[in-house]
Amino acid sequence: MPRIGFLLLVLVLFISFDWYCYAGLNQIFSGNLWFTVIYWIISIFVLIGFYKVFIDFSKKIGDVIRSVSTNLLMGFGFAVLVAKIVFAGLLLFQDIGILLIGIINYAISFFVESHAIMSSRNTNIITLSALLASIPFISMIYGITLGKYKFKVEKINLKFPDLPKAFDGFKIVQISDIHAGSFDSLLQVQKGIDLINAQKADLILFTGDLVNSLKEEINPYLKAFSSMSAPFGMFSILGNHDYYGMYQVAGKDPIARRIYMDDFNKKHEKIGFKLLNNDSTKIEKDGDSIRLIGVENWGAGPFPKKGDLDKALVEVGHEEFSVLLSHDPTHWDHHVLPHLKHIHLTLSGHTHGMQFGINIGKFKWSPVKYRYKRWMGLYEKAGQYLYVNRGFGFLAWPGRVGMSPEITLIELESTSI
User: Fold this and answer.
1) DSSP string covering 50-70
2) Domains in the chain, please, with CATH?
3) Most buried in the list 114, 192, 272, 318, measured by CB within 10 Å?
4) 105 in Cβ contact with 114 (< 8 Å)
5) Highest-pLDDT range among 110-119, 237-246, 248-257
6) What digits encode the pLDDT tens for the residues 105-143?
7) Measuring CA to CA, which residue among 203, 202, 201, 193 is closest to residue 227?
8) Which residues, in sequence order, are CB contacts of 322 under 8 Å at separation 6+?
């Protein structure tokens, strides 16, 4: 279908959906003129907002900070849309019930004299539906204003019988999924970086997705992230989004791709990261050492599969204590667990906890759990651990509800001492 025809179809469906929601709410407000005016002003504003966001995202925006207005427009638009979807779903449920009762009454009318066949909507139920729909709306407004930069430190203590004694009490900070192209405030990002440094970790590890697509998105934040430091260094890997700009800019030209990625790798170096692309390195302390391993992205499904665990493990001995950086947690089940070499701890990200969910004590839930078996927090199997960080930044929807941006502080402990 031609593009204009598709857009017209979307517009007709959107207006029909909007009218259905309006008709339901109008029963509560009894046709109040102010309600009608405000409702349609908001609807038009959301449409214009989505169009502006679409235009902005169509541009190749590189080394500029995304505008606050773009994020607020997109976030508010999504909040309104989700609230309407919830309300329309509840309204439809009531309408289906009315229709079914009407059909039953109609059938009965052939045998028994009856009164009204079709009942009208219950205003109390419509009001309750509107109140329920306001819950995700209010939550999402919080998420796009305050929640997206409310960084939280998750502290994890892991015990190992074969951890070298010199590394007892060794502290690792993990961050993941920076997605620099989504940020709209250098000040807020700096607060997160200051919180990283406040942990006084021995080692800082980044598990991929520095940008959304274009490598230039990190440029406004290079100086801020370069203020991070750790006595035993900082290391990073690539995530699936880190390759998309290469495909977009360089296409299939192998030379252009290499030039693009070489420049992208230099941005990691400017921050202070040493990239581990299917490679490993030793971290030495007081005569002992542990092995740090990094693979390029490997993800189940439609994601780049450039990670080569066998290549990364070439120099790793069977008895070495090892920590693996692998962006996508599906890699753990597909390649890490079945591997002959025992990898003590794997650090991943990628899922973001879907930036929406519930994380209270031991109770954790997010829609992303229906897509990913390992989606947030700590997992253990056969003496091997996986930790999935829910991300430092945000992507697509510019907010977070119940899934705060995360800085993970992992302390290693030797049980043989």
Assistant:
1) HHHHHHHHHS---SSPPPHHH
2) 3-145 (no CATH), 152-414 (3.60.21.10)
3) 192
4) yes
5) 237-246
6) 878 877 776 666 667 788 999 999 999 999 999 999 999
7) 193
8) 280, 290, 291, 292, 293, 316, 341, 342, 343, 344, 345
